[in-house]
Amino acid sequence: MAIPDLTPHPVAAKYAVLVDVGYLYAAAGEVLLGAKERKEYRVAADELIQALKKHAMERIPGELLRVYWYDAARDRVPTVDQRVIAQLPWVKVRLGNLNARGQQKGVDAQIRSDLEALARHHAVSDTVLIAGDEDMVPAVEAAQTFGVRIHLWGVEPPYGTNQAERLVWESDTVEELGADFLRPYFSRATQVVPAAPPSPPSPAQVFAGRTPISPKAPVKQPGQVTKLGPSRPRVEEVGEHVAQKWILTRGRDNIRDLLPGPLLPTVIDTELLIEAEKELGHSLRPYPEARVWLRDGFWARVYREFDLGVGISTK
After folding, report:
1. Cα separation, 45 vs 182, whole angstroms
2. One domain for residues 152 and 236
3. Minimal CA–CA distance to 303: which of 222, 233, 247?
4. Which of 39, 167, 178, 262 is the most buried (most CB within 10 A)?
5. What range(s) does the NYN domain occupy (predicted)?
6. Structure pTM?
7. What is the mean pLDDT of the chain?
8. Which residue range(s) make up the domain with 303?
9. pLDDT at position 164, please?
């Protein structure tokens, strides 16, 4: 009769990474660039998230549940960067509100709620918490009563400390993310200098040297059915309308993140196409040239909004 193996086997950990983006960005911007406001720098957030995931994997044996990315947006309407981040695998974007004075509201409450819920339902055995506010302490203590280990990560401060002392005390382990670790993902924002709008050409300049060309009718092959696509003026008009709607709903600061253009992130470009198709009432997918016209109209409106003397393409 075989004797059962009663030797206890180690249970692999399952962990989550909870990131207070306001703390992470502000602390890193200060130590790396001496910046006081987020608009002073740009962050390669997708690469930063991958680096944080790898860093956690090297320190906590087990399986990553997901990364929780806590940020804020005006009226909780996500920015361009936040929309891109939300598409990343194993990443959950949580948004609080950003008021008129640039203050985050509701972010800490979301972190506390998720931390306690993950612990109460035994969804994780360990949690990496990147935060600095003392308001996190009750949630840390609650999670620990359910057996969850809290690994507090902070950003190297230029001097003193940028995390609440009691939060450091209550955490199970504490680690500092150094400037060298964060530097590859932060860069100073470049200022877009408006170019002087070109002087409109005179009629003589426009028509000088041109000879009238008779329009040629398209040659239709026997049995061929001509497939009529949308007109360029109409598509460009829709592109401008979508841009105007985005500026009104998402705000000038968020749209400015798209500058200097003319390339759009894939997520935003797809959204532009969907919005335009709704306006037109039919698909643009069979007409590649219409996609170009749509972007032309979009950028024409954005450049006018920001007084940029940048021409659109003529493809």
Report:
1. 11
2. no
3. 247
4. 167
5. 15-161
6. 0.65
7. 82
8. 229-315
9. 94
Whether residue 311 is predicted with pLDDT greater than 50 in this model: the reply is no
Q: 171-178, long-range: CB within 8 Å, 24+ apart, which pairs?
A: 171/129, 171/140, 172/144, 173/149, 175/59, 175/151, 177/55, 177/130, 177/153
Q: Which amino acid is at 164?
A: A
* 164 in the same domain as 250: no
Angle, vertex CA 8, rays to CA 2 and CA 11, nearest 5 = 130
* Most confident by average pLDDT, 46-60, 96-110, 276-290: 46-60
Type of residue numbered 273:
L
- Between CA 32 and CA 181 the distance in angstroms is 11
Structural domains of the chain, count: 2
Tokens read off for 29 = 């911007």
155 — phi, psi (to 5°)?
Answer: -100, 135
Q: Are strands 91-98 and 62-73 parallel, antiparallel or unpaired?
A: parallel
CATH number of the domain enclosing 25: 3.40.50.1010
Q: What is the DSSP letter of 151?
A: E
Please report whether residue 223 resides in a domain: no
